[in-house]
Amino acid sequence: MTTPQSLPQATVTAEQLQALLRENRRLRKEIQVAREAAEITANLVVKQFEETERVLKRFQDANAQRKAVLDSATQIAIIATDIDGLVTVFNSGAQNLLGYRAADIIGLKTPVAFHVPEELRRHAAKLAQQYNQSIQAGIDVLLTYARQGYSEQTEWIYRRKTGEHFPVSMSINALLDPLGEFNGLLCIAMDITEKKRSDKALKESERNYRLLMANIPNIVFKGYKDGSIDFFDDKIEALTGYKREAFMSRKVNWPDLVLEADQPGVRAALIQALKGDKQYIREYRIRKKNGEVIWVEAGNQIICDAAGEIEFITGAFLDITERKAAEKALHQSEEKYRSLFAGGPNPIFVLDRQTLEILDANPSAEQTYGYAKAELIGRCFTDLGRFEYEHKTFAEMGDSDWSQGCVVSQKIRHYKKGHQPFYTKVKACPAQYKNRHAIILAATDITETVEKDAQLFQAGKMTTLGEMSAGIAHELNQPLNAIKIGNEYLKKMVQKGRAVSEKDLLAVTTAVTGQVERASDIINRLREFGRKPDFKKELVNINDTLKYVHSIIGQQLILQNINVGFDLAPDLPPILANKNRLEQVVFNLVTNARDAIEQASGDDSLAAVREIRFTSFRENRQVVFTVADTGVGIAREMSEKIFEPFFTTKEVGKGMGLGLAISYGIVRDFGGSIKVESHQGQGTVFILSFPGVKETK
Question: Which of 126, 456, 650, 662 could be disulfide-bonded to 654 (CB atoms 3.0-4.6 Å)?
Fold first, then answer.
């Protein structure tokens, strides 16, 4: 090892020493610069690391904020894609709305999975026409919208994983890279199902409001303290003659239209409402632009502010001029009705339609029935007498059941005070009485007429019995001859002293008893037929009546060589009539038929067939029977007069012309009808029709 002592001694000159010193100073300076550069470099590296950490921290914070924003939008679907259309962002809102998991969508599918194919095809066709290029009905539609800057909110249809469709409001935005190049798209969508439902409901409500405003007769308004008023439709123009704009521009104020005489009442109603519930209804008159005065009804609601001051008045007007005129006419009508009611010559009652309770009665009712008004009010009308009409009660009848609004009952037996009977004709009509369903019933005393009719009716029956005397005598002779023969047989056996066997004795006595009963039956039928009838109605079987009449007059017809035929429908419903009076109708028709056949005896062509035929049948709700003959018939010009009193086609002395007139009245009393079909030389048919009655058990 070489040591300094062993180095060769060199001679260093001053110049060399100076050069070395300068080199040393230069090296030191370079070392110092290098050291400073190293320190600066180290500081820069540290700062770079610190900045990188800060940027990374900001990125992490931003990413966390982005994620928080995306996750917080639970009702908004946020979906982003890359440049190829694959989903890169699928937030919780998208998961909630569409039903997919983000893990099943991100990087795997495009947003086309959430769209309706038909809608994509429509948009593809629209874009192809707009940009003159081919657009596929898929992700190209969304990417094209994004590239073209289509970012407005528009309505689309989304499809959930379940297949359910629902409307959304969606914007499509372009995603750009740092160089500004297109890098994907961002779709932000919100479910607008409820909004559309609300919008529809709102439109419907507005439409209904407009329809209501247009169709109700009321004129809705909003008024203010200064007398100005706003109207919400143009009906005010027809009411007042002033344009709506005249009120809206304050050129016309409502108080100026109110008649001066009615203004105090309007102000008083307003003041009273302010003291109470702030509502009032007032009727008053206004003067239209043309000077015409009309009535209006205003329903008002006063709206006050927090200080209790009137803020505005709202309500509606209604033209009640016609109603006022009707009320005036009604008042006048009621006055006339009251005058007629009080001064009418016939009894008039007002009855409750359900209970038949007497609500009112006129003075004539008091006089006719013998009761004071206080005794009549509250009493059931059936205490005075019966109703006879079809088979319903007034309580069961609606307004449509009344013939021309009224029901007429003929020949009804009523009772005066003390149970004194008399006959009335009753007409009852539906009406309103003090807001109740009522009956206005008028009664006419027809006792005298009924008694005369009964006498005439009885005289007709006695005449019929007289005409049947030959047949009756023949009928009675048959049982009397049989009795006589039996008695003669017993008499001869006794005279000859011969014993009568028990068998013969029993046969004779049985035959005698039978013939006595037969004669008694004939006499009872004659007595029943000849008795004076009342006018009480009952359920009558038409077939039984026809057979009964035949049982009495049949023998007479046999003696006159007249055949009787029957064509009767079974199970006919009964009719409401009087049995004895209906029998008289049939007797009258049969005797007329007999006489018509006798008149035809001189004509060989007519005399060949001598027959009377009874027919019965049902036609809808009517029970119909006919009496037909093969007689001479009736000329057309006479057939319209045969029901007139004292008109007859018979020879002088063979009839007074009352039989058919009486029959016509009886049939009408029972609610029926009678008509004739006849041609001269071809016989006659009388057709009688009555309302059928459903029997109640």
Answer: 650
For 46, list phi and psi in degrees, rounded to 5: -60, -45
Fill in the amino acid letter for 199.
D
Side chain identity at 550, as an amino acid letter?
H
Q: What is the mean pLDDT of residues 456-475?
A: 58
Eight-state DSSP code of residue 297: E
Pick from 197, 187, 194, 192: which is nearest to 94 by CA?
187
Which residues, listed in sequence order, are joined to residue 568 by a DSSP beta bridge?
616
| Residue from 611, 613, 589 nearest 600 by CA | 611
Integer angstrom CA distances of residue 552 from 457, 472, 519, 529? 18, 8, 12, 9
Angle between helices 469-495 and 447-467 in degrees, nearest 10: 50
CA distance 673 to 657: 19
Q: What percent of the chain has pLDDT over 70?
A: 79
In this predicted model, what pLDDT tens digit does every residue of 168-194 receive, in sequence order? 999 999 999 888 899 999 999 999 998
**Does residue 67 contact residue 102 with C-beta atoms inside 8 Å?**
no
When pLDDT is averaged across residues 616-632 and rounded to a whole number, the result is 92
User: In this predicted model, what pLDDT tens digit does every residue of 407-416 receive, in sequence order?
Assistant: 667 677 888 9
Going from the C-alpha of 613 to that of each of 81, 114, 562, 624, the distances in angstroms are: 104, 91, 10, 14
Residue 174 phi, psi dihedral angles, 5° rounding = -85, 140
Contact (Cβ atoms closer than 8 angstroms) between residue 99 and residue 161: yes
What pLDDT is attached to residue 189?
92
DSSP 8-class letter at 357? B
In terms of DSSP H, where are the helices of 253-358?
Answer: 263-275, 321-343
Q: Which residue has the higher pLDDT, 262 or 227?
A: 262
CA distance 85 to 109: 8
pLDDT of residue 605: 53
Of the listed ranges 99-103, 242-246, 482-486, 594-598, the one predicted with least confidence: 482-486
Select from 505, 546, 552, 558 the least CA-distant residue to 528. 552
The bridge status of strand 563-568 relative to strand 611-619 is: parallel
Higher pLDDT, residue 520 or 551: 551
pLDDT at 212: 67
Percent of the chain with pLDDT over 90: 25
CA–CA distance from 55 to each of 46, 67, 176 (Å)?
14, 18, 21
| Most confident range, picked from 24-33, 163-172, 444-453, 590-599 | 163-172
Q: Which of 486, 542, 532, 545 is nearest to 512 (CA)?
A: 486
Reduce the DSSP state of residue 573 to 3 states and report it: coil
- What are the CA-CA distances from residue 670 to residues 570, 573, 673 (Å)? 22, 15, 9
Which tokens is 435 given? 């807001």
Q: Give the type of residue at 167.
A: P
The answer, yes or no, to whether residue 163 has pLDDT greater than 90, is yes
In the chain, DSSP finds a helix count (H) and a strand count (E) of 20, 22
Counting other chains too, the contacts that 227-232 makes at CB distance below 8 Å and 24 or more residues apart are 227/253, 227/254, 227/255, 227/256, 228/253, 228/254, 229/253, 229/254
The Cα 579–Cα 159 span in angstroms is 85
In contact, 577 and 670? CB cutoff 8 Å: yes
CA distances from 5 to 2, 8, 10, 491 (A): 8, 8, 12, 218
**What do you get for the CA distance between the two ends of the chain, in Å?**
159
